[in-house]
Amino acid sequence: MAVITYREALNEALAEEMERDPDVFLMGEEVGVYNGAYKVSKGLLERFGEMRVVDTPITELGFAGLGVGAAMTGIRPVIEFMTWNFAILAFDQIFNSAAKMRSMSSGQFKMPLTFRGPTGAALQLAAQHSQALESQVAHYPGVKVVVPGTPADAKGLLKAAIRDDDPVCVFEGEMLYNLKGEVPEDDDFIIPLGVADLKREGSDVSIITHGKMIHTALQAAAKLEKDGIQADVLDLRSLRPLDTDAILATVAKTNRVVLLEEGWPHGGITATVAALIQEEAFDMLDAPILRVTQADVPMPYAKALEKAVKPSVEMVIEKVNRVLYR
Amino acid sequence: MPETKTRKPDARAAQPQDGSAQEPARKKTDAERLEGFEREQLRKMMWDMLLARRFEEKAAESYALGKIGGFCHLYIGQEAVAVGAIHALRDDDYVMTAYREHVHAIQKGITANAVMAELYGRADGCSGGKGGSMHMFSAEHNYLGGHGIVGGQIPLALGVAWKIKYKKEDRVMQVYCGEAAVNQGAFHESLNMAALWKLPMVLIVENNRFGMGTAWERAASLYDIYQKATAYAMPSAVADGMDVLDCYRVAMEAHERARSGGGPTLIEARTYRYVGHSMSDPVSGVYRTKEDVEKERANDPITLFADLLSRNDILSQAELEEMDAEVKKISEESAEFAEKSPEPTLDHVYTDIYSTEDVNGRLYFDMRGER
Amino acid sequence: MATKVYMEALSPTMEEGRLATWLKNEGDQVKEGDVLAEVETDKATMELVARGSGVLRKRMIAEGDTANVGTVIAVIAGADEDVSALTGGAEAAASQDKGGESASSAEQKAQAAAGSDVGQGAAAVAAAGPTEQDQAERGTPGEATPAGAAPTPTPDRGTTAPATGDRSIAPTGDDADASGSNGRVKASPLARKIANEAGMQLGGVQGSGPGGRIVKRDVEAAISGGGAQAQAPAAQAQAPAQPAADAQAEAQAPRAAAAPAAGGYHDQPLSQMRKTIAKRLTQSIGPVPHFFLTIEVDMGEAAKLRARINERFKDQGVKVSPNDLIIKAVAAALRKHPWVNAAWTGDAIRFHDGVHIGVAVAVDEGLITPVIKDADRKGVGEIAGEVRELAGRAREKKLKPDEYTGSTFSISNLGMFGIEEFTAVINPPEAAILAVGAITPKVVVDEAGDMAVRQRMRMTLSCDHRVIDGATGAQFLQTLKSYLEEPMLMVA
Questions:
Q1: Structurally, how many domains does chain C consist of?
Q2: Which of A144, B214, B328, C207 has its CA 20 to 30 A from that of B277?
């Protein structure tokens, strides 16, 4: 086990997978000479050369489509979006091409493609640079979505994503890149998609979330413990495929759920999970399913406003208290 | 009724930056035109164009009878482009286009049966009935679809060309689009990268002068599409889209450039469709007059080519008629085949969405079940 | 594919049933539609019909046992099918066996119950071995309740009972959504599930959640705590048959210990009907503000009319009793006084379109009120026939639910017992009830001022003061009296 940062974990994942399979290449803005906008691809150009670490012009739609075409015909692109906010330009290629190629062709074309980049808010980056879009991307059948919240999860999931023969969208976190954690040093350390992780155990309430929000959840759980409340904190890790068994198991255990996500409430993954729980675990519920999400507004710039918009530890605790009827 | 203006490229137009010549269409002699072609190949081209025509006519009839659903975009009048350009390809080269694709699919090697069955939405279609008119695919024949978003296929082709370079293959990625697609951002992004990285991509713009109901001159600040290549320091050419041999030549030149590391070429093939944009679009009356369409009939690529071959003793009228009868029969039989082919079974709703369902967690919500 | 056989709600108000007779044995082939058993409900004895085919693998309760609506009482499956999952779990639910159960089987039940995720409460329930007597304490508040000395509960299906009402839902599948008597109570899904599994009603449980929502802790407290709740918990220890180690049993022990101290006595187990009458009775007299109006009627003309009718239609077998004539007159009078053919809904007065008269019939152990529908539109001969037919079947406990529900007004006649007058308790959600006394010869002062002997009958109308005021009730009685004394007025 090594203790490394989330960024380093991603870097290792990329390097290992590129080493292992010559068909894997990384493409995106500033990934090469600049060593990556967030330094995730540091040192890779040097090691693997220009054909395998490719700096692109600012053309998200174009190079996303390039990734799809290349994947369709046999190699394994990793396409980086500097942030997922910019990927909105590329959505036509992700949803209309990548997600549907296999289905439209009745299985004739694989799509071993990975899209990755940071999602969600940082600090005061304002409306266009602060969006958490993983719920929206997970909406489309044909794509897969993973959201690592820790260095180990980042490494394991990115490796799994690269090896996957379907288009996988990896949602990292800008605020997570510096986070340190234990990461296995095994070349073949993979976290399979669709497996959630119980980051904390308790039987009074379930807090289900993903990505950087797991840290908010864990902080809330630590505070609640002082009050004698023990929370299950379930890290989904994968939005599609979704580990519904783990979700239902924790609900069965605690009978109370608070769902947390960084994105907006309208159609967010928390809405899907809530629908799942009430459909399939209705009789387990002692309280309504409550959610904590970003406020349903574009992110404002001013510091205090931004803080009020983002989900917080206090909001989680408040909802937990409500489902416990405290 | 706006008068349709046809403009030939101005010979005095600026030359592309890299000095490559673009040839305005001018009258060549028969001998010039036929030079370098084998007899058998010419007859095959005729046969291919006839099949294209009769197949599309049969598809139109089937659509009118309700056998084909959704959209159906026909290639009638444009046969010379696909037939000519694909004749200049090898089997292991790739072809990709937008949605006016039936002829490209057949020309690349998919049987008429499989194409018609796909139009009918049957299990024996080349996409298993899951694609339809706009999404035909054949990995076996290196035919890469079949795409519905205007211009969306161009970045895909870019990626295939990237793959060819990456894997150091001796292959060409031939991709088609309509003239209206050149206004899409995807066109520009792709040309830039193709030229920047010298990728083996040949983009053939099938300029049939109307983007659905909008005449090209109403949508374009720069009428001559081939000139757009200058913005990317990329070679370009114009082909007479009603002349199968010209399409062949221009394409072949571009392919050779691509194979030798010379990078991409933008080809503007000037052609015309005798039918509406799709089966839901009128042939004339809204954005072009009946007379205009009739006038263009004089340039029918099949008639013109037949005349050329006949007056050079390569194909007689009788042989032509025999060919026509053969391709008509093939088209008829493809419809019969399609009719008999079964529909895909209901479980196909959930097949081939992902590479495997053997994963942990739920890949999709199956709303059929009772819980 | 196994079929679970449930104790079904065979009457609209039924909350539990007593399995009177099994008509199929374990091992018998059963076809969908076959009658499996006879079940005694709060109203009548009903047939329980199989909803699946196969072999009757297990009968989970015995003849004489009672089970809540929604409990699995048998399993039909293939001869070799493994049904252990179904029969094992169900034992915990069928925890209401008659007293006299052996300690070991009660322990078995305790273990099975403890195995379920209901927790301590359910285990205690099973361990204590409840008796039928305890069932009497259980009830759902706010249920439509009937009269006291008079007719048996007939909830008017035409109205919605205020707030909670009875909603006995025939269970369709899942154990969890069984128990119809838990309808319209705010409770979390989990609380309902726990309550169902423990065989308890939610009705009396205090909810501590927002808006009075009953949540898990409330149900668990109700199951294990007992005393403080409005309803007693499901199980109470009778004479301590086994050492009652837990708090619940101890809490009940004093109560049980008190019984033997009262001296020699004999307990008769309550029939379903008895229990229901008791429950609904108690809950009616409270909320409904009764007042009573008495009037005396000369039945001379009525008697003559009756005789003429019986003579005229003798060969058709028509035999009209005085009560039949009274029913007819009441129906006609109700037509003229719609406020008496009405109901209190809580936020409105409901005026019924039809006149449906409930007629009290004494049966073994109690009363039932078959309903003469559209009594105002039927001839007196027809009414007589119907009353006789329904009463006959009522005594045999063979009435169908729609035959004893839906009345808009009730009549109780104790004349045949010589009672001269009495007051009846209104059968909610109706607004009034008529108590009819015996026809006796009396000396009266006639129109001429002389003394005469006349056939006199006294009737007392009980009125719900929320719907009917004194004058209204009085006017109704005046009309009724006029119809009986001058029957021609019903026609003119």
A1: 3
A2: B328
Domains of chain B: 38-341 (3.40.50.970)
Question: Residues of B with CB below 8 A from A279's CB?
Answer: 371
- Token pair of A95 as six digits: 């949803």
Q: Are residues C137 and C90 in the same domain?
A: no
Q: Identify which of A57, A242, A276 has the shortest CB distance to residue B192.
A: A57
Residue C426 falls inside a structural domain? yes
Mutation target vs A (from B359, B367, B370; most A CBs, 10 A cutoff): B359
Domain boundaries, position C293: 288-490
**The two three-digit tokens of residue B39, written as one number:** 């007899």
For domain A197-323, give the fold: Rossmann fold (3.40.50)
Look at residue C272 and tell me if it is in a domain: no
No. of H helices and E strands in chain C? 11, 18
Each residue's pLDDT tens digit in chain C (492 positions)? 677 788 876 665 677 888 999 999 999 999 877 889 988 877 677 788 787 788 999 898 999 888 888 788 899 988 888 888 777 644 444 444 443 344 444 444 434 433 333 333 333 333 333 333 333 333 333 333 333 333 333 433 333 333 333 333 333 333 333 344 445 688 899 999 898 888 888 887 888 888 888 999 999 888 886 534 333 333 333 333 333 333 343 333 333 333 344 455 666 667 777 777 777 766 666 678 889 999 999 999 999 999 999 999 888 888 899 999 999 999 999 999 999 999 888 778 888 999 999 999 888 778 888 999 999 999 999 999 999 999 988 888 888 888 888 899 999 999 989 999 999 999 878 899 999 999 999 999 988 999 999 999 999 999 999 889 999 999 999 999 999 999 999 987
Is B131 an interface residue toward A (CB < 8 Å)?
yes
Q: Decide: residue A3, CB within 10 A, 0-12 exposed, 13-18 middle, 19+ buried.
A: exposed
Contact A280/C at CB under 8 A: no
SS (H, E, C) A81-124: CCCCCHHHHHHHHHHHHHCCHHHHCCCCCCCCCEEEEEECCCCC
**Does C264 reside within a domain?**
no
Q: Indicate the domain borders of chain A.
A: 2-183, 197-323
- For an interface test with B, the pick among A21, A23, A61, A197 (most B C-beta atoms closer than 10 Å) comes out as A61
The C-alpha of A247 sits at a distance from chain C's nearest C-alpha, in angstroms, of 17
Q: List CB contacts (< 8 A) between C191 and chain A.
A: 286
In chain A, the largest separation of any two C-alpha atoms, in whole Å, equals 60
pLDDT tens digits for range B177-191: 999 999 999 999 999
* Statement to judge: residues C143 and C236 lie in one domain: yes
- Phi, psi dihedral angles at C357 (to 5 degrees): -105, 125
Cβ–Cβ of A193/B361 closer than 8 Å?
Answer: yes
Q: Are residues C77 and C186 in the same domain?
A: no
Instruction: Kindly report the CATH number assigned to the domain that includes residue C39.
Output: 2.40.50.100
- Per-residue CA distances from B366 to A167, A218, C353 (Å): 20, 32, 49
Residue C382: give its domain's CATH number: 3.30.559.10
Contact call for A and B: 3+ CB–CB distances under 8 Å:
yes
Active site residue A60: yes
Contact residues for A65 (Cβ-Cβ < 8 A; gap 6+) = A90, A93, A97, B152, B154, B155, B156, B158, B159, B186, B190
- The pTM of the whole model exceeds 0.90: no
A30: alpha, beta or left? (left if phi > 0; alpha if psi -120 to 50): left
Residue C465 bears catalytic tag: yes
Residues C451 and C416 in one domain: yes
What is the C-alpha separation between C199 and B39, in angstroms, rounded? 92
* Domain A2-183 fold: Rossmann fold (3.40.50)
Which two tokens mark C267?
A: 């307990």
Residue pair C56/C30 in contact (Cβ under 8 Å)? The answer is yes
B359 touches chain A (CB under 8 A): yes
Distance from CA of A282 to the nearest CA of C (A): 6
Are C329 and C216 found together in one domain? Answer: no
Residues C481 and C407 in one domain: yes
Residues C145 and C89 in one domain: no
Q: Are residues C242 and C318 in the same domain?
A: no
